[in-house]
Amino acid sequence: MQLQQLLGAAHVQDSTAGSAFLSDRHHVYHGQVAAVVHPASTEEVAALVRVCVHHRAPLVVQGGNTGLMGAATPDATGNSVLVLLDRMNRIRQIDTDNDTVTVEAGCILQNLQDAAREAGRLFPLSLGAQGSCTLGGNLGTNAGGSGVLRYGNTRELTLGLEVVTADGDIWNGLRGLRKDNSGYDLRDLFIGSEGTLGIITAATLKLFPLPKARSTALLAFDSLEQAVAFLSHARAGFGAELTAFELMSAACLALLRQQFPDGPQPFAQAPQAWFALLELSDNHSAEHARQSFEWVLGKAFELNLLADALIAESLAQSAALWQLRENMSEAQAREGRNMKHDISLPISRIAEFVRETDALLQAHFPGVRNLTFGHLGDGNLHYNVAAPLGQSVETHMAHYAALSALVHRNTQALGGSISAEHGIGQRKRELLAEVKSPVELELMRRIKQALDPRGLLNPGKVLP
């Protein structure tokens, strides 16, 4: 009754609210709630938090529910209030002189991209789920995507935040400043905290000039070592104009051809083992972009850094090549569930990691199929492992703990991280204790205790 008086009866749903809110994207985690609420303003969020503090009711914030770690799924106790910020979706201001946009957390990422484009600017965060994920979720997980190579993760794109604290206070840190050394950087604490330290309600983000030309190519490599060497060559040749370098194995392309037979079919008979989708964003002209492409790729052939290349000659061809990368998750879903590993490594160790880990998996789990792809330009691999041909998905997934432990051990041994862009959530919470030092874990717990002393913000997530 108190929540209905605060938000209006139409914006409060009881525990029988649709199951879409109560399960994660892949239906691995399921929860129950006391209520589902839809506040319309930062002030309403703050008042909601104060009510929940009074009743000792946990709060879980959910955006587009596209996450993969169960971070936005409530637990099974049924005590939590699930907060949906879908009514808080306004773009408050676009400042083209300062190249910033201030936007509310419930705004869908693609809508933000479109608004920036209409203002003659680029907001470069680009994800496969951009048509449904929200800015709040992007901030909560420090989302990456295909443009990190040039523009950085969500954290690097953020100048200021507006946050409702665990006490129900409002911190207005929406400063569009690129230089501000006035004390601790609270902004970076909240970004990537998965809703465990505060509720992000709005952000001031960087905008960039729209590129005058984009060039796209699908490249073929004889080995992963060759792909890594080419990437160094491309960085030197293209500089900041190199926007994306998306890796796909031959097995990934084969799966795409199988699951999307009417889609693009490049390199269908190619003998190469690895492929990469390269994109160049040029701020000069289409002619300048073409000349850069020709020079860098031509030199790569001379140096034996490249086996073959398919260059898009039109926007339609470029879109078709990007369709390959964007369909990867759906192609895997159609084939059946597999073991997903969102990891990052120093780029110089990636070929070694794949070679060693592939061999270890075959030794311990004969016949498993590696579907490796990801953002090679920033060291982020989606090292996914599918069932052997003829084996049921259920039998394969029964080995999840042992197989993933092997993958993560080798990731750690080569200086990598168990989570590159998907976060920790529920799925990797216990694993965090194995990969973080006692000092790191204690510091994280102290931060949680200081900012959320009652432990009401997204309990059971991130910290073991």
From TrEMBL:
<dbReference type="InterPro" id="IPR036318">
    <property type="entry name" value="FAD-bd_PCMH-like_sf"/>
</dbReference>
<feature type="domain" description="FAD-binding PCMH-type">
    <location>
        <begin position="29"/>
        <end position="210"/>
    </location>
</feature>
<dbReference type="InterPro" id="IPR004113">
    <property type="entry name" value="FAD-bd_oxidored_4_C"/>
</dbReference>
<comment type="similarity">
    <text>Belongs to the FAD-binding oxidoreductase/transferase type 4 family.</text>
</comment>
<dbReference type="GO" id="GO:0003824">
    <property type="term" value="F:catalytic activity"/>
</dbReference>
<keyword id="KW-0285">Flavoprotein</keyword>
<dbReference type="Pfam" id="PF02913">
    <property type="entry name" value="FAD-oxidase_C"/>
</dbReference>
<dbReference type="GO" id="GO:0071949">
    <property type="term" value="F:FAD binding"/>
</dbReference>
<dbReference type="InterPro" id="IPR016169">
    <property type="entry name" value="FAD-bd_PCMH_sub2"/>
</dbReference>
<dbReference type="InterPro" id="IPR016164">
    <property type="entry name" value="FAD-linked_Oxase-like_C"/>
</dbReference>
<dbReference type="InterPro" id="IPR016171">
    <property type="entry name" value="Vanillyl_alc_oxidase_C-sub2"/>
</dbReference>
<dbReference type="InterPro" id="IPR006094">
    <property type="entry name" value="Oxid_FAD_bind_N"/>
</dbReference>
<dbReference type="InterPro" id="IPR051264">
    <property type="entry name" value="FAD-oxidored/transferase_4"/>
</dbReference>
<keyword id="KW-0274">FAD</keyword>
<dbReference type="Pfam" id="PF01565">
    <property type="entry name" value="FAD_binding_4"/>
</dbReference>
<dbReference type="InterPro" id="IPR016166">
    <property type="entry name" value="FAD-bd_PCMH"/>
</dbReference>
<protein>
    <submittedName>
        <fullName>D-2-hydroxyglutarate dehydrogenase</fullName>
    </submittedName>
</protein>
<dbReference type="GO" id="GO:0022904">
    <property type="term" value="P:respiratory electron transport chain"/>
</dbReference>
<dbReference type="InterPro" id="IPR016167">
    <property type="entry name" value="FAD-bd_PCMH_sub1"/>
</dbReference>
